[in-house]
Design brief:
homodimer, alpha/beta, Rossmann fold, 4-stranded parallel sheet, 14 helices, about 15% strand, globular, Thr_synthase-like (chains A, B), lyase (chains A, B)
Chain lengths: ~425, ~425
Amino acid sequence: MTAAVTPTKRSLDLGPAVELVSKEEGHRQPLAPEFVSAEDFSPLEVAYDFGRVRREDIEAGPRNIWRYKKLLPVPSNVEEIPNTEPGCTRLVRADRLAKALGLKRLWVKDDTGNPTHSFKDRVVAVALAAAREFGFDTLACPSTGNLANAVAAAAARAGWQSVVLIPSSLERAKILTTAVYDGNLIAVDGNYDDVNRLATQLAAENETWAFVNVNVRPYYSEGSKTLGYEVAEQLGWRLPEQIVVPIASGSQLTKVDKGFRELGTLGLVEETPYKVFGAQATGCSPVSTAFRNGYDVVQPVKPDTIARSLAIGNPADGPYVLDVVNRTGGAIEDVSDEEVVEGIRLLARTEGIFTETAGGVTVATTKKLIETGKLDPEAETVLLITGDGLKTLDAVEGRIGPKATVPPNADAVRQALQS
Amino acid sequence: MTAAVTPTKRSLDLGPAVELVSKEEGHRQPLAPEFVSAEDFSPLEVAYDFGRVRREDIEAGPRNIWRYKKLLPVPSNVEEIPNTEPGCTRLVRADRLAKALGLKRLWVKDDTGNPTHSFKDRVVAVALAAAREFGFDTLACPSTGNLANAVAAAAARAGWQSVVLIPSSLERAKILTTAVYDGNLIAVDGNYDDVNRLATQLAAENETWAFVNVNVRPYYSEGSKTLGYEVAEQLGWRLPEQIVVPIASGSQLTKVDKGFRELGTLGLVEETPYKVFGAQATGCSPVSTAFRNGYDVVQPVKPDTIARSLAIGNPADGPYVLDVVNRTGGAIEDVSDEEVVEGIRLLARTEGIFTETAGGVTVATTKKLIETGKLDPEAETVLLITGDGLKTLDAVEGRIGPKATVPPNADAVRQALQS
């Protein structure tokens, strides 16, 4: 746990956020850049006093996640401070994918439209807004991909320093997409676990560094609620019957559920029943395995899957994912790397959306959930597609290519098309 | 010119579009999939009868380009037909870039948020909508990059066949990003000129193929007007004083101007003066050269620049670009490949936006226009950033990287940051 930084003169403004609460035993403590309860050692979560929130206020807000600022731990003037303006990504009616899967009514939430093309822009934007209130001046993270891009970009736009730690073995393309923002990108000779440990240590030692997914994690993770808010608003202020969410740490799934419940409690949507489904790659499926076995704890695994953005072997929110899925009557499944690639290709072929491996996991798992009778093909379903295929080209490399290579004449083209 | 396809039973519905008009002598002819006037051999352009269009109607529309459907050559129900739903991308206030450039008030229109991350999704969506009305069933193009992605994705989502022709020497990554949509991607043994010639021949021979940038080009190019509409709406229904637009064929620049003028004529914005500036890479700068020399025609060049998406040596709309720039009191400049890379890095470092080489051209040219006194640093300026850096990683390869590579301990990280 990081010592709280002394706020500057003005008092702390985190909007409707009032306290942190421990997830296990509900111990309450003041808002601070801390992430684990000293009482019960469980994760801390933001608690709110929302007051009255009306649809009209939200609809009159900006076309980004700050339209929901009255539901987030961010300052009241958050939209005026330079930020990457993530959110309000497309929710597309996916009739062709629905047909291919045998679903009646399907929507795809396409979060590749975010500034750095993954949902991480949402959580990082909230983390940065909260970190600024706490008096931090540097945005940091350990990462191998989407998070590194999002942190480096958000810091650049805000005029903050950034410190992004990556394993030195990372592919050149992934290094470039973070290095271009010109923050402090540090390659560490070690694996991702080494980098993660180093981040936790540095977070404890550097009072002005906000590690988005460490010391300001309770604020950061609230950013995922906006996926739930947007789905509901884009459906015309109502909840879908089923939603399929990929599981890495599990935070996103629990926060989408939290967002749905808040909307219901606040009277912004009718409290209709919904089922939350989780998707994992078999090569890193600790939560799926726990669900299958009926456990309420999650046994860590050593990840081995092409879905690297989901490859968290010891997911912090695993038990809470199980809670949500069990409470709502959903299910969790996992799919092979081969199925992941098929999922990527199916979504691209039917809806023109090119997703990264995590999206392939979501699509393929949906297919499996239908085949095993766990997902109701008659019920309206939403898939969360949270990252971009341009970032995981290696997953499809060697599997797809031109239909034909021909000499430059029209007959050759026609023949190629007829073959 | 392609023979018009016989429309199906219902009559042609292209919304407010009423005729095609030749750009040189104003010859009028019925709406059809034709792109060159048989009278004066100049390009054909869509003419409209808009009737009354109100801001409220637009604001009540969908959050994509179809909110402007009453200003486009598309059917009245266009938003109901599956499409990639491009547009409504972010217009971000760019104070840090403004400061770096010495500008008072600057906005960046970040079109990387489109479905396949370039403005081509806009023009392809309009082309597809019009092509459907004309009875075509296959969407096609010659391309080496953004257009190939956009056509393949749009066709996939619409459930259409696609035929995308590329030079067989294209880099593997660019092949993958089109091949994933599973259309007919045909690699042609030849250079881009060969591929282009082949496309024109095939467009003439295949009555059911809509080559977006050949036989349905007049409709396709109208899609770029939406960039102008969005900028004006996002500024609060007013025109900027200066706008900088990259020039490839020159179509985008002329259509942004057309969009601005239409908004003024329709009373949707006040008709305040604005200047349009053009940006080229020196390695392919025929329009900039013509402007510098005061010519009203453009001499073709052989392109040699890293800004490949702008590398059109014989730009079809070059003369019309000169007209717009001269009429509005703007200017055109060009920049070296070295400056292009600096432009990419400057935008990333100051605003967290990673653009492709074309965006680097726009930023670097803006800098040059300020330095040469052609762009007024006191006047409000908009830059069009029309494509994504993830697609041109080779441009920054070898120039950027980690700040340091260190062993996995905190001291080493701290030392690296102090050095």
